[in-house]
Amino acid sequence: MNIGLLLFIPSREVENRILAAVTAAGFDITQAQARVLMRVGPDGTRLTELAEAAQVTKQTAGFLVDQLEKAGYVERVPDPTDGRARLVRVTAKAEEAVPVADAEMARIEAEWEQHIGKRRMTQLREALEMLGEITDPYR
């Protein structure tokens, strides 16, 4: 099995489990919406940047942001650096889902550590962080 697939399968599992935990806690959100939402920066993000980071078209990102806005997870606000532009910013409602997602992530990491051992889990994290240095354009 190639390394891309070996990385993708656990990543997909993390996404699926976190989404399941968040939706079970009463947050009505889809995987596509979550992928856009988790890319909104702390001070807000322009729609074009969200589209690029989520690897979707600007139209798709706009549609997903419209849905998120209607559900109360994001708001559009003026960009203080450019009066013509708008920023997408998360709301308090979206921030309420963060502890749910964080708790599920902690459970996943604990399960993985139990399965592969503490030393390997530490090595895995270190290796992935190092790979992020050369693969993450948003770092």
From TrEMBL:
GO biological process: response to stress
DNA-binding among keywords: yes
Residue ranges constituting the HTH marR-type domain according to the UniProt record: 1-133
Keyword DNA-binding (UniProt): yes
InterPro entries for the chain: HTH_MarR-typ (IPR000835), MarR/SlyA-like (IPR039422), Tscrpt_reg_MarR-type_CS (IPR023187), WH-like_DNA-bd_sf (IPR036388), WH_DNA-bd_sf (IPR036390)
Gene Ontology molecular function: DNA binding; DNA-binding transcription factor activity
Key words of the record: DNA-binding, Transcription, Transcription regulation
PROSITE patterns reported for this sequence: HTH_MARR_1, HTH_MARR_2
Domain of life, per lineage: Bacteria
Protein name: MarR family transcriptional regulator
